[in-house]
Specification:
Helix content is about 50%, strand content about 5%. The longest helix is centred in the last third of the chain and has 31 residues.
Length: about 375
Amino acid sequence: KKPRPDCHINPSPYRPLVAASDRLRCWYTPFTEARDQRLCNSVDSSSVNKLFNTLLASLDISTRQEYGSGLLRFAQFCDDHNIDENSRMPASEELLSIFIAERAAGLRSDSAAQNWLQGIHYWHKINGAPWYGNELLKQTLKGVRKMVPDSAKRVKRPPVTVEHMWALWRGLDLTNSFDAAVWACACTAFRGCCRLGELTVPSRNSFDATKHVARGTSIRWQTLPGNVRSVHFHIPWTKTTQHEGADISLTARGDIDPWFAMRQHLHANHNVPTTAPLFAFETSAGSWAPMVKDWFLIRCRSIWTTAGLQDVFGHSFRIGGTTEMLLEGISPEVVAAQGRWKSMAFMLYWRKIESILPLFVSRSYTHSRIQAANDGLEHFRVRNGLP
């Protein structure tokens, strides 16, 4: 496949034309050749290849693609400045810093620069090359961070709101197998503060049982005293825990009820096999199809556009679910547990801060006044010998 004009590099046997995800393994330098020869003198080449394949398997395919983008930018920079092959790996700290200053400062976000460097760093790591990124490179990145242009700054993603969810409830036909799956997926993402990628698949043929939750997963239904209903299941993979996965716990609350939505979905799509994705749905052709992320968002957006609501993104469900729990007065510790955060980093997701902060400050102030009154009453009773 012919590369785009912005992906052009000078022809070189060291950099064959391969997919971005394969550049880490297939792009090399004289340093790599010497290292491979040294390894092959000790063990056979199949064992060396096994090592490289295992190292690459530690990265998700999307991460390999991002890292490959960093290698591309670095190769273009080196080509433009006629940097010889021996100097490209191991790269000196000065070369890495000049690369970042020239190609990122005032042009890109600091996160883009860091992703490029992470790719180059991992390329060095799997080839056994020393990494010289130190104080000079750190200071260069600090400068890049202060020079990020407005065009490269990511606008905060808006949250899915209760109004969005109510619009879905009114606009979907829950007797339709696809709509029933959409509603169950939406309720799970919103009430469970989930990433949409944890519940859907990227494309029709991309289901991977090691990463995507299947319909055959163990689903536990629970009813506690007071008719508190909840549903629980395990997902095999998350962005942070990788293959340890996570347990999803959903509690029935109001009309946006994941307990009912899941029941409705499983009933409407009862012929879907257990090996299919959890939110797969039956088709009019008598077969089934997985819940593809783009299909899900297209259906949601069609309803939200008709209702005149703000357009949102996949991650907006996680943001919106978090925000709504805080607006309901649920403590941040409980919100962190619901969203499976191990720190208070989720506070970056807070939206409607003008409503959330006064809510918690007011409750804390009221609690403090009640506690002070109780303490005063206790002191009065003790001082006057009252029971």
